[in-house]
Specification:
The chain has 138 residues and is mostly helical. The chain has six helices and no strands.
Length: 138
């Protein structure tokens, strides 16, 4: 039960943090996924879209591996490849987390979405009158 609360906290934090920093949001998504993995006796829900998306990401990482081998195992190429579109894999973890929400947890996540909207509007108004990007603060 406590692992499920930790999962919901990290998932809600990811939603709220997305209004300020996508990278911070991805970190919370990763933590939510890890806590979901350690939730005891959870029944995972899979659909066809989930299986298609797994095939997509396997393809992405396979292409990265092939190019890495062709670059003579250059660590720099691997680093650049992971910093490009493959880092969006963490956003995909959010899809897995959302698919495994219980019905009783959806209202709590809706509250996080409302907080996200308020933070987004407030930071939007601040950025109108500021010469600096707020994302640099994080």
């Amino acid at each position: 039960m406590i692992a499920r609360k930790i999962f919901l906290f990290f998932l809600s934090s990811s939603v709220v943090a997305c209004s300020i920093s996508v990278s911070l949001s991805q970190g919370f998504l990763f933590l939510a996924f890890i806590s979901l993995l350690f939730s005891p006796k959870e029944k995972w829900q899979f659909s066809n879209i989930f299986l298609y998306s797994i095939l997509f990401w396997l393809g992405e990482f396979s292409i990265l591996a092939i190019h890495w081998v062709k670059s003579d195992y250059s660590i720099e190429y691997l680093k650049n490849g992971m910093m490009a579109e493959n880092k969006d894999f963490f956003l995909y973890l959010g899809f897995i987390c959302m698919a495994n929400l219980k019905d009783s947890e959806i209202p709590k996540l809706e509250k996080a979405v409302k907080i996200f909207a308020v933070v987004l509007v407030v930071t939007g108004f601040i950025s109108i009158f500021s010469d600096y990007r707020l994302g640099w603060l994080i």
